[in-house]
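Incident log entry.

Two folding requests arrived from the same account within the same minute. Monitoring flagged them as a possible duplicate submission, but the sequences differ. Recording both here for audit purposes.

Request one:
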Amino acid sequence: MTEDQSTRRFTGWHMTAILVGFFAVVVAVNFTMARLAMTSFGGKVVENSYVASQHYNEWLARARAQDALGWEERIGLDPDRHVRVEIRRAGARLDGLQPDATVSHPLGRTPAVELGFAAAADGTLRSATALPPGRWRLDLSVRHGGDEARYRVDLQ
């Protein structure tokens, strides 16, 4: 090594290059993260939060009434990815249930699709179609006589 190379000085230009490089990386990461956030989340839970807030007490009353039914639900996917629904009251299976269900992607990437159900051999309800692989949100309304219960279940 020559004496010239060992005595190089750190100048203002070196510091400027370091600062410009640092902030360029920070800005690039921020723009990338913002773009990913904007394109991967639907961002909408309800259409209008003010209108939804007007129904909050009604929804709480409906939830209390549903809890008073004493229904115990088992909702999930079978190995073939069909939705299975079993509702019991005091340990006994409820027969004659009338389900109404839709499934959608939890982040709103696909529109909601209605599911049809049929009684399985074991007495549970089984969806007519299987769900594709991935995460799904099931919105299920079940009626039995004059009683109704609503469930929202994330399925994988």
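Request two (distinct sequence, not a duplicate):
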Amino acid sequence: MSKRIILIGKAGSGKDFFAKKFIEKGFKYATSYTTRPPRTGEVHGTDYVFTSREKFEKLIKMDFWYEHVSFNGWNYGTSKIQFREADIFIMTPSGIAKLKEEDRKESLIMYLDIPYSIREQRLKLRSDADKVDRRLEADEKDFASFTDFDVRITNPDF
């Protein structure tokens, strides 16, 4: 039986939408830490724990993270405490690659593999800390050989 659900997908795939649906059903969400600036409307502690690069790196030295990655010049991470206590997560391919074998066995990984054109439209509608083309290009590289998932959702109509 899975102890946790991990959502993964490229930008604009619907990860936040699905996370909110799980939260509404009583799941405990692990709010990721990041060094990237907030998007318009994002709330510290709800959408992300926004932190400085200096503090993030200090936490690396303190062995605070279960997993942490660098993506597109920013850092993202999940603390060890969050990984033990929460049951819904959003991760990247490199974050999933860092799962311990026993933790991977206890995880259900849902890959939101939504068509490029749909994601591009969604990204153009939101205020983002990154340029749409740069983010889409970075995601293509990040997901180039990603295959470690249990469920793959390709229908964007959810």
